């Protein structure tokens, strides 16, 4: 049953238009990404940086085109209907009590714990506890699960802009997507790429491992640690 739930959840992710963003790569140019953030600034809505002695200009339309992101739909999750939020609180919860953030992700049923891990690693700036479901991550999960029409190009580009404006919010997850962008935009040697650990990439094998390690994690249980994964075909 858990496998069927996972399959439905991944199908929903694909239908949002996020597949190419999630499956961007299984390796990163760590040093080049560090340089990108160190020299980046936002000018008139465009991210400008210097990597490998070359000027890099990253606009939202290039970001959207690279990952095939939807450019129409809501840009603020304040527009999510209250009825949808209430419904999702019930679906996410691993108990009879409706889910309310902030709370540990182990209070969710397994398929939504995995969705939370993907959202936390891939869509959010690095801030706060990874395994705590805050409002930002909850809203993203609601939008994905409910199949809402979201302008993901705008939403995710603004996350990247926030990372540039506040370097303490840099995310290792975005390092993968930035590596793809750097390969496309910088016509120079980027240095050595580093392959991600297999358990950091979402494949059939890593999903089975995730399920096996989390089967004994029940709402309210403190006994088990979760395995983090990101997404790839």
From TrEMBL:
Domain of life of the native organism: Eukaryota
Record protein name field: Delphilin-like
Lineage summary: Eukaryota, Viridiplantae, Streptophyta, Embryophyta, Tracheophyta
């Amino acid at each position: 049953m858990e496998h069927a739930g996972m399959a439905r959840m991944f199908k929903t992710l694909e239908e949002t238009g996020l597949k190419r963003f999630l499956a961007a790569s299984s390796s990163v140019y760590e040093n080049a990404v560090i340089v990108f953030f160190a020299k980046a600034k936002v000018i008139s809505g465009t991210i400008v940086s210097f990597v490998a002695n070359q000027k890099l200009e990253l606009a939202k339309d290039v970001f959207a085109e690279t990952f095939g992101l939807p450019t129409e739909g809501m840009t603020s999750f304040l527009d999510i209907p209250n009825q949808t939020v209430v419904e999702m609180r019930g679906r996410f919860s691993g108990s009879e009590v409706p889910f309310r953030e902030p709370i540990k992700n182990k209070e969710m049923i397994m398929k939504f714990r995995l969705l939370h891990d993907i959202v936390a690693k891939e869509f959010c700036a690095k801030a706060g506890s990874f395994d705590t479901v805050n409002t930002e991550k909850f809203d993203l999960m609601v939008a994905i699960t409910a199949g809402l029409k979201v302008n993901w190009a705008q939403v995710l580009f603004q996350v990247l802009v926030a990372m540039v404006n506040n370097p303490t919010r840099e995310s290792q997850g975005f390092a993968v997507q930035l590596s793809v962008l750097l390969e496309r935009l910088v016509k120079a040697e980027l240095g050595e790429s580093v392959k991600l650990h297999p358990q950091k990439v979402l494949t059939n094998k890593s999903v089975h491992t995730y399920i096996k390690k989390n089967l004994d994690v029940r709402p309210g249980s403190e006994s088990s640690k979760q395995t983090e994964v990101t997404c790839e075909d």
